[in-house]
Amino acid sequence: MKKILLILSAGILMLSSCCKTVPASVPACIKDGKIVLETPDRAPGQQSALALACEPIDVVKVAFVGIGGRGTGAVERYTHIDGVEIVALCDERAERVEDCQSILSEAGLPAAKGYVGAEAFKEMCENEDIDLVYIATDWLDHVRIALCAMENGHHAAIEVPSAMTVKDCWDLVDACERTRRHCTILENCCYDFFEMSTLNMAQQGLFGEVYHVEGAYIHYLAEDWDHSEVWRLDYNMANRGDNYPTHGLGPICQVMNIHRGDKMDYLVAMDTPSYNGRKAAKQLRGKDECLDGDHTISLIQTAKDHLIEVQHNVYCPRPYSRMHQLFGDGGYAGKYPIEQISVKSMHGHEALSEEEMNDLLQQYKPDFVKEIEEKARQVGGHGGMDYIMDYRLIYCLHNGLPLDEDVYDCAEWSAVQELSRISLENGSMPVEFPDFTRGEWNRIQGFSYAFAK
Questions:
Q1: Are residues 90 and 224 in the same domain?
Q2: 261 and 272 both lie in a single domain
């Protein structure tokens, strides 16, 4: 009888540890109090893309797909970068291709080959005379275009967020590892001046051990729901969670050396009801429901027991904020609502004066930024950070160097969307964060920019 009871108890324990499947884009179940998503095996012959370096390219031939507002700005910026040839322009609308041809003409550059239509990128990617495909379409088309680019031998650069499901994140990782073509995320906020200087401060130990960071995307978009952001409202109405995590998350992940000595271990998410989102759905779509809460918070514990907080709110009429808060045992830096830095060894917990802070920001500004800052501010793109992002991508391709943001960044930062949804739909249960490096997150120690010798 005791033997039977022991067998029954063991069976009940096994069922309780992993008995309930959870809806997700990849197989998932509850195990030991966490939701665990299945990690696909690396295919035979497929290799890690950590520190992936490809052959140098003298003149980078660039094709742009999706040339609306964000894409048109990218085309204009690329006319100011040396060693670049814009060879293809692709969009669903012919007038957008024509507008970008005018940009090339005004810059004294030859016309690019035009491709028009929802599936025209496929024909474009068959063109062997392309090195880089720059993707600035709506979110839902990012992955299929990037996969097409890599499978045809081209590097892929994807606007944010690069993917909307964990499965899509794995597809990007596997394609990059298999084809040995770069797949990067175009996260411009990693190149804002305050973020780059404070990243360098953190890497140099000025803040001591940075154990907690906060990032966000808080941007009132209601005025755009009925014209330029129509697709975003539609997505938010149908999808709960942090639907736009990477602007706040990318810079703080670099500070935390994610997959460069630490990794995101698990995520817990909470949200508010939908107030303004539901009002917009009713007013503009005649719908009574918006699944996305007005404010979403995701807490992420790392393998080193450090803490990442990321927030999303595009509904509240409040000033723009990416938060960007760094907390260390030796200091603090924060950008919103005001820029502040405190360093324990200088003034204890008191904020530095504006003059002291500006001197420190200049002192820790990376040398390459000092060299191109004036041009970056002239060319523009969110104050110059877009240009610096483009400059670094082309610099690395020119010199055959690893990119600042690799495919694992692309996957990790984008995966928060589905992981937050899964947590929310299961009572804020912890969700184990996929290790897209498949166990190699500790092989590289510390984030760094690559430079030619």
A1: no
A2: yes
